[in-house]
Amino acid sequence: MKRVTYILLFICCAGYINAQQASDYFPSQSGYKWRFIVTPLDSLNNEIETDRFFRQDSFALTTDYEGNIANLVLSKEGLEQTIDLQPYTDSLYLYFSGANGYEYFELGGLGEFLEFVDSLISFNNFTFVDFFASLEDWYSVYRFDENVNTEYSIFSVDTTVSNDSLDLSLRFEYLGERLEDDTIMTKIGNFACKRFLIQQGVSLLFGPFPVPVAYELDTVWVAEDNWIIQDIIPATDIDLSFIGIPAFFLPGLKTEIIDQPTAIKEPSTQLNNYSLYQNYPNPFNPSTKIEFRIAESGYVSLKIYDILGNEIATLLNDEKPAGAYQVEWNAEGFSSGMYFYELVAGKMKETRKMILMK
């Protein structure tokens, strides 16, 4: 009996010691950069090579974000010849706990599509933008200890919307599934990967039976010490026939790593006394406040960019002494959507996103 107890104890301890940690799959130090080639896919998921573009990601820093110590990954897209000169225009926050990788869910690029849907049909006391904004939170997206080929719910929310002529029951879902491990060949070598299928979508509910309206299927390959090195989103069919709009599709995307991650430090990660804070309120209408802190005197610029990376406003462009500052941006005259603000102070450069909601 004692021998059996020892064996069981050994098995349990060995399992605990060898348990895969989600953080094992992310670079251990800030400063890493990844470069990808992104190929759009047509309605049949054929590659549109003439429309290829490049994406560069940067593990900028580790910071306190929405209650967790999170890793901030900045991202930008563009032509190969100019991408190094472009500002970062998007951001993603990640944190890891045990075998789970968490993402902070934000409207991001989805906001533009939701604004389009809101413009097509109006409901009483309901907009898709407001609804999804209410869901912004941390979610356990990547679960490395899940059973293979078993779907798990990241979140699922049912709601009813109505107007003078229509009542609809809708289900919004964010689903995950750990697929079988896979080894893939890339331009920089072969990688043994964990593979996940992440789904986001909406269904119409007829009693207990959901009928899909739009679901994005995102397959990602995650390599140890590298994070995501390949990502394929097939073309997404959108069926809005229930409100009299012909069906259409959103092009798919195939994203492949093409450069080995580098451990070159971003300037901002070496200057921890420099801080750019999240604007407040956020979302906002029509004005918001942006606070930042600089460690030494010097030239400071604070600029606003639209979703396409176009500079639309300069809030500050001057010499400033060390200290804390607050700047207000009044967006009267600008349309609802996602915007970015970029602070440049000496060698430090940092970008954050904000949402104007009118």
3D structure, described in words:
This protein is mostly beta strands. It has a twelve-stranded antiparallel beta sheet with strand order 6-5-4-3-2-1-14-11-10-9-8-7, with no helix packed on it. Strands 18-17-20-21 form a four-stranded antiparallel beta sheet. Strands 15-16-19 form a three-stranded antiparallel beta sheet, with no helix packed on it. It is globular, with a radius of gyration of 22 Å. The termini are far apart. 23% of the residues are buried. The N terminus is likely disordered.
| Overall number of strands | 21
Structural class: mainly beta
Mean pLDDT: 84
| CA gyration radius, whole angstroms | 22 Å
Q: Tell me the helix content.
A: 10-25%
List SSEs in N-to-C order: HEEEEEHHEEEEEEEEEHEEEEEEE
End-to-end distance: 70 Å
Largest sheet: 12 strands, antiparallel
- Sheet with most strands: strand arrangement: 6-5-4-3-2-1-14-11-10-9-8-7
User: What percentage of the residues does DSSP assign to strands (E)?
Assistant: over 45%
Overall geometry: globular
* Tally of separate helices: 4
User: Are there runs of 5+ residues with pLDDT below 50, and where?
Assistant: 1-19, 262-271
